[in-house]
Amino acid sequence: MAGEKILVVDDDAKILKIVCHCLEKEGFHTMVAIDGEQALQSAKLNQPDLVILDLMLPKLNGLDVGKILINEYQIPVLILSAKGDELDRIIGLRMGVDDYLTKPFSPTEMVLRVQAVLRRVQGRRQMQNSSTITCGCISIDLNTRTVTVAAKLVSLTGKEFELLWLLVSNPQQVFTRMQLLNKVWHSDYQGDENTVTVHVRRLREKIEADPSQPQFIKTVWGVGYKFVCEIIA
């Protein structure tokens, strides 16, 4: 995994030095930015594989920077911030960040989290380019739009299949209900977020051994849902 480009964004020179030193020891290439505007310029120019982003930044705050990195540049983001309360974590997850680490932090843990995020991103990209996915006892075929659980065919509606495929092909990624609504039902749909809740419940009844204690489709309280499983391509 060594060799990936990491953009580190922080206005604290000591933090930049520590983070870059730890990453470079593991073989990563690092670049730095000290404010929000510089971060976006560097990201657009260099297309890093991951951005480690502080929330409290001059010129443009980290939340606004993160939204642009994720939504416009499609670059994974790991938040590294002194702001560590539950609300900030929820905002970050709703924004679509891949991980969240609070200061003070363990350099070893930071490197491990970076490696884990990059593995997940690589896995997601492979799954998005694949037409079949196997996860535990679940097998999904995009071409035939079929799903089997423990080798038994499961009947899904069109939207149930699309919802499941989106979650499975983005393992560990947290989606808000509104994001799922927009991606599966699209922005012109007139329903509300409860539609997603109902479909998730139906999916769990069809693919989970115990829908009340789901193994695959997990609820991230206050945010939305994610699919948890070791994917087999």
Summarize the structure.
The chain has 233 residues and is α/β, with parallel strands linked by helices. It has helices at residues 13-25, 36-46, 62-71, 86-95, 107-128, 158-168, 177-185, 194-207; strands at 5-9, 29-33, 50-53, 77-81, 99-102, 132-135, 138-141, 146-149, 152-154, 175-176, 217-220, 224-227, 231-232. Helix 2 packs parallel to helix 3 (62-71) and helix 6 (158-168) crosses helix 8 (194-207).
Features:
233 residues, alpha/beta, 5-stranded parallel sheet, 5-stranded antiparallel sheet, 8 helices
Output the number of helix runs: 8
**How are the strands ordered across the major sheet?**
2-1-3-4-5
What is the average of the pLDDT values? Answer: 87
Low-confidence stretches: none
Largest sheet: 5 strands, parallel
Q: Please count the beta strands (DSSP E, at least 2 residues each).
A: 13
- Output the helix-strand order: EHEHEHEHEHEEEEHEHHEEE
CA radius of gyration: 19 Å
